[in-house]
Specification:
alpha+beta; single chain; 5-stranded antiparallel beta sheet
């Protein structure tokens, strides 16, 4: 009897009702209506909004992660809560020294530096490199930093990732570099945000075409990017 009560309590705690965020649903959605959010449903909305708005993952406790996971298999909710399961995904980042490409990604310095040096254009000032290397295959597993609670942002749009990797954070730095990580969606657990962006309060982020990963990601390759400058550190 005790086990049965705990099972029923678990089902109730993770149930989102018959509709998802009914009062915030987009026009024409089957979820649109006046059904009030359940406690876990409201918590999921807040956790997603905080992540999109501030990159804050502290509200993603295990209960909310489990609720999202179960919602992806429930026919009442799985048109909204989905995982990306196929295709290439990209993560664009800027990194500054000190860092170690060979240690972090298993790529010898001679290989990735040679890639960038081979991009040098004779039409540019001597020492100025073109923007991006070719993709260099890797077998590294990407592990999000602890402060992100295991989350990281990815996109199926290569140009979106390139834009993030190309943004200069420190114009005076001679060690800053952009990288684009490449993974297959089957190599991790990626939250597909496409339908979620349609709900009121979350729609402002739609242009980012974001997928949110939970946990470690098996990488397939890495691109290296540097902005146009007249001085370089390699």
């Amino acid at each position: 009897m005790k086990i049965l009560r705990e099972y029923i309590r678990e089902l109730l705690a993770e149930d989102l009702g018959e509709k998802v965020w009914s009062e915030k649903a987009p026009e024409g959605s089957r979820h649109q209506g006046e059904e009030p959010d359940t406690e876990i449903e409201s918590g999921l909305y807040t956790a997603i909004k905080f992540f999109l708005n501030k990159g804050d993952t502290t509200l993603w406790d295990q209960e909310r992660k489990d609720a999202f996971d179960k919602a992806t298999t429930d026919p009442r909710y799985n048109d909204v809560f989905k995982y990306e399961t196929s295709g290439k995904l990209y993560r664009g980042m800027r990194i500054s020294g000190p860092w170690d490409v060979e240690r972090d990604y298993g790529i010898p310095d001679s290989e990735w530096m040679g890639q960038l040096n081979s991009q040098t254009s004779s039409k540019k000032v001597k020492g100025v490199l073109k923007n991006m290397s070719e993709m260099i295959p890797v077998t590294t597993v990407y592990k999000p930093v602890p402060r992100t609670n295991g989350f990281s942002s990815w996109t199926p749009d290569f140009n979106v990732a390139k834009r993030f990797a190309s943004q200069v954070r420190d114009s005076g730095s001679n060690t800053e570099m952009g990288i684009i990580l490449v993974a297959d969606a089957s190599g991790g657990k990626f939250l597909d945000m496409t339908e979620i962006y349609g709900f009121k309060g979350l729609d402002r982020y739609q242009g980012e075409a974001e997928r949110i990963s939970m946990g470690d990601i098996q990488l397939e390759g890495v691109y290296f990017i540097q902005p146009n400058k007249t001085r370089w550190w390699i």
